[in-house]
Fold these 3 entries.
Entry 1:
Amino acid sequence: MNKKTTVLAIGRWMPIHIGHKKFLTELARKYDSLIVGIGSCYENGTPRNCIPAVEREKLLRKILRTEGIPDEKIRIVPVEDRETFEEWIHDVLKICSVYGVTHFCTGNKEDILNVLDE
């Protein structure tokens, strides 16, 4: 019996670029389903967070569609900024539990490896 694989990729995706497109497309093709976490989802109107999450979601969906990835294979979820890493990772682990995540990708490699080593 094959176990379904679900990958969670978290990023701000701001601005989304060709590297993001390639990364997410490869994940979507490799795994049974792709969960895209939009970080800084409630932060808008600052130089660092100038594109609202709803617009980033639209862009992500459009890009993945143009790469032939069906909508049914993708779920996009908000990931809120938190005061501490512990609060943030708690939220991430909850997302993993809710969606049955089997694999996880993020740019915060050092922090995540420290949590996984504990």
Entry 2:
Amino acid sequence: MAGQVDNPFRIGERVSGYSFADRELEVARIREAMLSASSLLVYGPRRMGKSSTIYNAAESARTSRPKPIVVSADVATATNLFDVAGRLLRSLYLETRWLRLRLEDLLGGLAPRVTVKLDEHGGPPSITFGIDRRTASEEERRRAFEAVFERLSQVRESTRRPVAVVLDEFQAVTRFAGESSEWHLRDVMQRHGDLAFVCAGSQESLIHGMIGPDRAFYKMFDLLHLGPIDEQVFADWLEERLARGSGVATGVGMALVRMAGPRTQDVVQVARQLYFRGLAAGRRVEVADVQAAFDEVVRSEAPLLRSIWAELSAQQQDVLRVVALGVQRLYSAEVRDQYGLPGASSVHKAVETLVARGILVREGSAVTFDSPFFRRWVRTEVASDLG
């Protein structure tokens, strides 16, 4: 039981310390941006560890003097600028409690007016703007958003500390009012050049468009692409931690990376299962255990994968079957005839929809599954239907 509690492989949360995989160069780059009022865009595929990397950079930055103030908001789960503004204010409240600034000092005088509801259990307060969310105009939402940055600049001036703003999945801002939201955010960032901005995003096709020559963020950011960790470095990191459980055979780490990679979280998820597996068996884990642990993860996710599969059209399902078999050249007459796929235009439409939903991703001219677990499930459970 103690081994399970001490499992170093953690998923679904920001991790640090012993559970954080090697990202020293990236952490140092983000830390420097936070301390120097720079605008940095950290982008890359999902599940690469962007949130944890930024979190560790913030923790590292807080060891400097003067200690910076780092506020953050997840844009992806917001429905409008009120949400983003409120989250930044809550983050500011939590971040500055050690400065003993009164709530009135942080929020008083903001326009539009904010409403604060204290948590009866001592948690962070609920902070909302005193405007009807349903009837507020886009201009009122933008004024509320701008007011937060005005306050952040005031906090920076009064405390004489660096202030960094982290906007996670920042590309989602376009959902609020299209491209005009991009230009509005750019304008806010330019007017508050005394603040540092670290924006993160995982929808690379959208991000590439947003930083293109005819869009708002052209040459606005320094860029930091967060790709896969070096295979050997990652493999060594994995084996060192597996060795502290029930022991590990040489080669297990590389087998993990090759089977579940390249996304950091996917590899860690299988490593976590492998760690438990070794403890349960009371022996060191071997290379042969990697496939078994991988399949155990697939089985644990099967209910979710089945529900996703059921929502797809028959054409989309057939495309996924073919991709799961490792077949490329989906639009060729030969492949379509062999696997019973529809016309090239219909296959193209299915692929575009699957990419837009994040089920498939592009790798150069090829497409592949975003999730290695979904790929394995399709290959073993339904790909045989194609013969």
Entry 3:
Amino acid sequence: RFQAAQCDIVVLEVGLGGRLDATNVIDVPEAAVITRIGLDHTEILGDTVEAIAAEKAGIVKPGGAVVLGDQDPRVRGVVEQVCRDQGAALTEANLGEVRFHSSSLECQHFGWRQYPDIQLALLGEYQLQNACTVLNTVETLRSRGWQIPDEAVLAGLREVVWPGRFERVRRDPWLIIDGGHNPQCAQAIAASLREYFPGKKILFLMGVLADKDFEGIYDALLPLAERIYAVTPDSPRALTADKLCERLADEYHFTAAKPYGSVADALKAVLAEAGEKDVICVCGSLYMIGEARRELGLR
């Protein structure tokens, strides 16, 4: 399909892992990009970040160029060794190069190398790391002969939209949608909520899959929760809303959780009960946030 479309260059996203993923049949890519690694799909990729990093680093090919966006020294060590073995050039996206200016619920302003003032439409410190990874990837592509104008880079960061990633879809009350579904993502959601809504307790509309790290997710998010509107994601792997509420009561003594029969019912309830100054966060499962976006009339 890419060939039929006569693409000049393709962003080919790995489906799962890297080493054994179907996308890895390609020849040496112009840049192999490895973003921040979390403990997810552990039953397939391994239960340590080192094991998962080794699977991700399977996309590194002899003589290629690699951009690493992960700052975990355990991950860095694995990727560095693979790059040495493959004779690949490694560039690390160092967040220390970012000159942070300001942040609001509209955008983040920062500088990086030759760019004194970049506007980033995505919120959260982890998005600054992602932007740093993007900028390093652009420089890697330029070094390989690709002509990428500065204005295209700046416009891309200024106008980028990432549905389901700390997506602000409504005000008064604020309604945030985030597809985060592992402990690392939950920690990022919690950090962003604390940054942009300091001191606020959050109304969570949540559903999770039974094979996810329940404790890792709720250890991060529950300290911020005022109430939880629990739903069952549309997946055979889902943890039921009733069971979610039971586990929160049994394991965390959190009793302000109520199950709902559908995402539509839960959305209706939380929007009816929220005040203008409240903050609603829909998160926990990509399956569930897709349904929530449809209910809200979003594509």
